[in-house]
Structures are given as C-alpha cells and as structure tokens.
Amino acid sequence: MNIEEIYSIYTIIKEKVEKRIAEFKNIWKNGSNKDIFLEMAFCLFTPQSKAINAFKALENIVKKDLFHSNDEKLISNELNIVRFKNNKAKYFIIARNKYLDNIKDIINQENIFQTREYLVKNVTGYGYKEASHFLRNIGFVEEIAILDRHILKNLFLLNVINEIPSTLNFKKYYEIEEKFKTFSQKIDIPFAHLDFVLWYKETGEIFK
C-alpha cells in the first residue's frame, strides 16, 4: 500500500466520486423528510453488516409497505440479511417515530460536529461511525469521516495511525479524523474523496 496506488485509484474513480457526492448533497437540498430519514435508517442497519445488505433490507421494508409499521417482528423478518436484526428493527421504529417529521430540524448546518454529537447521544443504535455515515450520505462531506474497519485498516497501512483501535470513543474518533484530514491535505486529495478511494480499494465499488 503506497501513495502511488492511492493516486492511481483516485484517477480512475474521481468522476464517479464527484457524481455520488452531488447525489448526496441533492438529498439534503431537494429531498423530503422521508428521503433523509431513509438514510438515517440505512445507517442504523449497517453496523457489522454489509452495506449492500442493509440497503436491500431497507428497500424491502419500503416495498412491502412496512415503513410505517410498529410491528418489530414484521420489520425484523426483513432484516434477516443483516446482523442483530431484532435490535435494529426496534431502533428503526424508535427513530422513525421520533425523527421522521422533524429530521431536518436536528441538523445544524453551521456546526456539523454538534449535530453528530446530538445523533450519537440521542439516536438509539448510533455511534460516531453511524452518525458520520448518515451525515455524509445527506451531503455533509467536507468535515467528517466514516472510520469503519476498511478506512482504519488503510490509515494504518499508510502510517497515518500507529495502530487500529479496538474501540472508538469521542477522543479517539476525533483524533484519527484530524490525522485523516491532515493526510488528505498532504497528498492533495479532498478529504471527502479520499474516504471513497480507501473504501474502493477494499471493496471495488462506490456505494453509500
């Protein structure tokens, strides 16, 4: 793993990355409360599960007209392809009932870090990674990072961090995030783009 490999990947996917970021920003600009909440729900389903499976499960919930259901069992049945399906069904219902109608009101565009802290403290099932993922997916891409296992692994291989932490508390998340930003500036690849580059290196795709 070296900088040349990073640049090579970036050259290949740059246009696709720019298109995806524009799509994310359009969700915030033109999307409904439901559109934005679906991104919140998607990020509730992703922990320790494949993103594509989380997306498929959410699609099934919507297609089968279960989006407004309060039946945990019915929703859990659609989450068979992700881990911790029962907990995630419960989290989905709690979040939908609490945030669907006012989800834009909890986003402080002037201080996205403050919003992330709110999400971590108030959305059942969210940690810093999930809150960051949600905010990225609705267009707030410039200041925050999704420190999942793929990103942490590559930051370690690139000597940006000295070890892969077993847990990410408030202090550690912000510390690594700042190192990630500094590294992106050093190699002159936008912070939001570099996240996609490292993800693509591991998965071979640009997703959500």
Short description:
This protein is mostly helical. It has ten helices and no strands.
Low-confidence stretches: none
Q: Count of DSSP E strands?
A: 0
CATH superfamily membership of the largest domain: Hypothetical protein, domain 2
Assembly category: single chain
Report the sheet-strand fraction.
under 5%
Category from helices, strands and their pairing: mainly alpha
| End-to-end distance | 24 Å
Helix content: 55-70%
What is the CATH topology of the largest domain?
Endonuclease III, domain 1
Give the C-level CATH assignment of the largest domain: Mainly Alpha
Major β-sheet profile: none
Mean pLDDT: 95
Shape descriptor reads globular
Total of domains: 2
Layout of SSEs?
Blueprint: H1 3-30, H2 33-45, H3 51-63, H4 72-77, H5 85-99, H6 112-122, H7 128-137, H8 149-157, H9 170-187, H10 191-203
Helix pairs in contact: 1-10, 2-3, 2-5, 2-7, 6-7
Description:
This protein is mostly helical and 208 residues long. It has 2 domains: 84 residues, Endonuclease Iii, domain 2 (Orthogonal Bundle); 108 residues, Endonuclease III, domain 1. 65% of the residues lie in helices and 0% in strands. The protein is built from 10 helices and no strands. Helix 1 crosses helix 10 and helix 2 crosses helix 3. The longest helix has 28 residues. The protein is globular, with a radius of gyration of 17 Å. The chain starts with a helix and ends in a 5-residue tail after the last helix. The mean pLDDT is 95.
